[in-house]
Model the fold of this input.
Amino acid sequence: MYIAMNRFKIKSGHEQEFIDIWKGRDSHLHTVPGFIEFHLLQGPSNDEFTLFSSHAKWASRGDFEAWTTSEAFRKAHANAGGRKDIYLGPPQLECFEVVL
Done:
């Protein structure tokens, strides 16, 4: 199993807007071989930002990598940068092989 996570720092006061962007987005993940599940996680806040993480579970690293070069990936990310003003920097990708 393989887990891919993106960490987002969302400027304070824009949390619900960020959540709504994800709610309204068609990720096309349901059409991709090896996709298991997705969660959007909301973490701690400070005066500057709230931490969010997208958490996608895949059957294998190969399945995730195939997704990143697929037409479904291009469609899912076509409008991803529309509201750059709510982000405090770019997302940080973190990937993990499940060992236990």
